[in-house]
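User: Can you model how zinc ion sits in this protein?
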Amino acid sequence: MVQVQTFVFNPFSENTYLLYDETGEAIIIDPGCYDRSEVNELTDFVQQHGLKPVQIVNTHAHIDHVLGVAALKRKYGIPFVLHKLDEPLLKAVKTYASNYGFSAFEEPEIDGFIKEGETIEFGNTSLKIIFVPGHAPGHVALVNDAEKFVIGGDVLFRMSIGRTDLPGGDHATLLRSIREQMFTLPDDYTVYAGHMEPTTIGFEKRNNPFFK
Ligand SMILES: [Zn+2]
Ligand SMILES: [Zn+2]
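Assistant: Here's the modeled complex, given as structure tokens:
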């Protein structure tokens, strides 16, 4: 059974997710850990639980989601993958990182690209990749049918949706992604978002003010 461990990192209060199952294999999604103490919080958890991270996967490449990628790649010697359409966003981060106070940001090397319809595998666990652009052009979400959840990134939040005023953002595209890709998941699926607390598909279909 897959476990979802949440860490809240950096001044954007970004949710970093560590997923692991009974085999001890783990993947790290959207590592936003920036300073030494944040990186240690994640690596200490991995060590204390005897886990073996095998891959870093990003839902998208905004700065708050990629701050820890380089450090964790180095620590574990594991590949980093994301959707190809978010590569320009990743390449842009170093041009604005110091404006946000992240002068120590290190651009990670990309090891591979993922796309919709494929699966991410680790241990006994499988995550289906869906394509949900709008907040970012190459935004993906990761669906686990066995435990009924989706790691949604910055697409759908409790009572809110992702912002679309950043480069590559598009409001109509985001609404369509949520309607066609997220709201077609079963109502009882938990949404682990990139910020704030988890929600469910059913709750958002009934209560999200953007879909009234
Ligand atoms: Zn974002
Ligand atoms: Zn974010």
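A couple of observations from the model: The chain has a mean pLDDT of 97. The pocket of zinc ion (ligand 2) is lined by residues 12, 14, 62, 64-65, 154, 194-195 (CB under 6 Å).
User: Helpful, thanks.
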